[in-house]
Amino acid sequence: MTATTKTARVFGSGIRRREDPRLLTGTARYTDDVALPGMVYAAMLRSPHAHARITRLDTSRAKQAPGVVAVFTAADTESVLKPIPCLWLVPGSDLKLSPYRPLAKDVVRYVGDAVAVVVAETSYQAYDALELIEAEYDTLPAVTDPEKATQDAAPELHEQAPGNVAFHWVVQGGDVEAAFRSAEVVVRERIVQQRLLPTAMETHSAVAHYVPVTGELTLWNSTQNPHIVRFACSVVTGIPEDRLRVIAPEVGGGFGSKIAQYPGDFVTVFCSMKLGRPVKWTETRSENYQATTHGRDHVQDVELAATRDGQITGLRCTVWAGMGAYLSTAAPGIPTILHGLMLSGPYRIPALKEDVYGVYTNATPVEAYRGAGRPEATFMLERMINRLAAEIGIDPVDVRRKNLIPPFDDGFDVVTGLKYDSGNYVGALDKVLAHVDYRALRAEQARLRQQGRYMGIGVSTYVEICGLGPSQVAGAVGFQGGLWESAIVRFHPTGKVNVFIGASPHGQGEETTFAQIVADELGVEVTDVKVVHGDTDNTPMGWGTYGSRTTAVGGAALAVATRKIKAKAMLLTGHLLEAAVEDIEYESGRFFVKGTPDRYKTIQDIALLANVAWNLPEGMEAGLEATSFYDPPNFTYPFGAHVAVVEVEPETGRVDLKRYVAVDDCGPQINPVIVEGQVHGGVVQGIGQALWEEAVYDDSGQLLTGSLADYAIPRADQLPEIEVLSTVTPSPHHPLGVKGIGEAGTIASTCTVYNAVIDALAPLKVDAIRMPLTPERVWRALQPSREGA
Amino acid sequence: MTPAAIRLTVNGRRVTSSAPPLTRLLDVLRGEWNLTGTKEGCGEGECGACTVLVDGAPVNSCLVPIAQMAGVRVTTIEGLKGKHPLQGAFVELGGAQCGICTPGMIMAAVALKSRPSTADMQAGLAGNLCRCTGYAGIYRAIRRATRSR
Ligand code: FES
Ligand code: FES
User: Fold this and answer.
1) How far is A265 from chain B (nearest CA, A)?
2) Is the Cβ of A66 closer than 8 Å to some Cβ of chain B?
3) How far apart (Å, rounded) are the C-alpha atoms in residues A53 and A70?
4) Chain A residues within 8 A of B35 when measuring between CB atoms
């Protein structure tokens, strides 16, 4: 019997994003929009050399320039600023840390390494004065390729790391040597996961305001994790954490690059501490490309062992993962924990071993980039499965079917030691194949081949690891923090709600989805819930938005806090209606005694009565507020299957992406419109890697793709409509069943498109091309076969 | 030697700038008049985040010095006052994620002719980059708004 008529659930409905009105009217405030009285502007002098000894650094002329307030170098900062800590110290990997100084001292190690800062009344004056700093260098040999950097003759970056090896980590399970000894088929490939530029459209920015009389610092920062910035800033600057307020206002995209703790931020803070004035530093785009972290950069040697009929028996690989010149905040965890542990993907692989070498190179530090480790693992597997399929003459879809883990809904142990939560990989594959009519596509391909046209079909299945993660595991894998999230839900006397949450989204729309969670649990209007985030002074601790964890972990924290409120409301209702709490029921916003739904209290009644506290049961505290600290019992494992269709023009090498279909399973969707947007954006970013994007260094370590004119992020006219479908397999351990969706598209799409192109070129005997598959690369790859033809 | 003041109309209001003549329009809008809705994504004419209308035509405000703006009419995102059908359509159809490209996208779309073809949209927005949305929501929104215009 229900007390009210059922209304449509707000959980699962694509309601409009509350973030949008401010974004669409230009009233949203990003870090660079912050203007404070007396504010001055910082600009960084960056090394033009990839590797050099600083022989002279004379700032005296710059100090005299118009408007200049101060110029600082490492000589000024080193007594105040400590080196920037790396926060993911992967155990058992013989990690070789080297000091990562906010301003380089004696030696510069990549083009963009900061050596001095100018502060001036206007930003124009600051940039003008940079040119007056007299810096001289003795250049040293440089190396930017991670594999070459480990070879004997390579120049070394840090005395602490002989041979440039920052760490060596191994994952293994099963008897891989035996698997290869007895293999009927072995396929091999060298895969290069090229270096990428994350290219958040908002460059990195910081405004530091230090008030000498109180010793308090406020730092506006375009970051994905303000609470981690507060912690790191305290470590580096010595300002106590309680005097430090970090605000991540509107943040214009991050994709992993705004996880990192940046030298420029701490230098900006230093300037404000010295000058007692607010200081703003905002990167230019070319500075962003040099100084904001990059992504990927793997050289992978991969071998797959299998039976003749396509059963995978083993996987063995060596990876050289470029770290750049210094170990960025989370960098060591990415090619290891987030990559190596996911190597078996959605397949039953009985034995595998991977050696990962994290390598120092004379390049910009590498950090998480959308997918972080998982695209590099998924690509490896999906590539090798297609190679195996070609080798044994079986359709790649059938090879996948033969190896996919069968559906499971409460835990599956894989060879790397992880326990996947739930999955129905075959279900996702079936759905995407039915949607595109795979047989018909293959028939069309055969027809076109007869006409001399090169159509290709790429199919991928993937699983990823999200919702990072249990803090115990974080500790065990060397993450220098927890991975829980916290939330406070506060009901005001009028029944309106404030949510204060530690997680800090930056474009993913969680102000909306978080409000949906509360509204769904307690029957308040979604518009009555205001979500506060991104300010360390008025939100509880949170470990940041990355690894698709904000909805998965932050959302769970919020659900748990909301359920505490509900439990208190039950108690209070029982007291007020003179019934035992066991007899109180809740339905659609009403609390009532079983059997008498007409006598009820709404959550708004309860909010008022709890807040005025005139009549509470013995021992009950006043107010209606709950806090939760949610530490997930396991990771979540979203999955899916994608299909891409391309046509390649052999005469020009041009790849025409004709169709893209994604089936993703992130569990129940809180807001399907937002989910679709995440998939769209993610898929397109992954396509960018497959077809267009690459950070290119020349032999001397100069970044050749130093501007948006040279670095090709996807443009609207290059893309087909991305068709987005889903299946729903709830996570068994999550209070809402949700898994996370921020990275899925990127994880699957690079290999899907790549495999489609290679499939198209199969008749021309091309079986590998280095990414990105630009017309030039494709055309060149075709030359030998065409000559032979 | 103080530079001559530049007079122009911004969002319907007459304003005067005494910024040095080579100051970028973008910086004058943001710094002098606090119209921070116009964004900088590259400063090199490659991303369109800084798009404003100058006498009705879309212009990258990071590329034009204020000296060239004497007597023109400039419209920024603030000038639409939240009432333009494109703004409603963007909310409806997922046109914005992080929002940093959004004001520029909208200003470029405002300048499209009504009922634009896909090719018209692609040409009109060729200079506007978005890293978050994959463009799908943006194009849907523009299609919706320009149909009902
Ligand atoms: S900021 Fe003007 S085009 Fe990018
Ligand atoms: S919404 Fe983030 S760049 Fe377009």
Assistant:
1) 19
2) no
3) 24
4) 26
Count up the domains in chain A and report the number: 3
Question: Residue A312 and residue A402: Cα distance in Å, rounded?
Answer: 9
- Cβ-Cβ contacts under 8 Å, A33 against chain B: 30, 36
A13 domain residue, yes or no: no
User: Do A529 and A658 belong together in one domain?
Assistant: no
Pair (A597, A684) in one structural domain: no
Residues A642 and A625 in one domain: no
pLDDT of residue B89: 95
- The pLDDT tens digits for B85-130 are 999 999 999 999 999 999 999 999 999 988 899 899 999 999 999 9
Domain end, chosen from A630, A647, A670, is at: A630
Residue A545 pLDDT: 87
* Structure tokens given for A660: 């893209």
Residue B39, classed as helix, strand or coil, is coil
Same domain, A683 and A757: yes
The alpha carbon of residue B117 is apart from the nearest alpha carbon of chain A, in Å, by 13
Q: Is the pLDDT of residue A130 over 80?
A: yes
Q: In Å, how far from its chain's centre is CA A167?
A: 22
Distances (CA, A) of A134 to A58, A116, A426: 5, 11, 63
Tell me what pLDDT residue B2 has.
58
Cβ separation B131–A253 shorter than 8 A: yes
Q: Which two tokens stand for residue B103?
A: 């004001």
* CB < 8 Å to A28, chain B: 99
Q: Give B71→chain A minimum CA distance, Å.
A: 24
A37 touches B at CB < 8 Å: no
The pLDDT tens digits of the residues spanning A391-436 come to: 999 999 999 999 999 999 999 999 999 999 999 999 999 999 999 9
Confidence grade of residue A1 (pLDDT, cut at 50, 70, 90): very low
Tokens 């799908």, located at residue: B136
> Which residue owns the Cα nearest ligand 2 atom 3?
B130
Residue A255 contacts B where some CB pair is shorter than 8 Å: yes
Between the CA of B128 and the centroid of ligand 1 the distance, in Å, is 9
Same domain membership, residue A664 and residue A611: no
Global confidence as pTM = 0.96
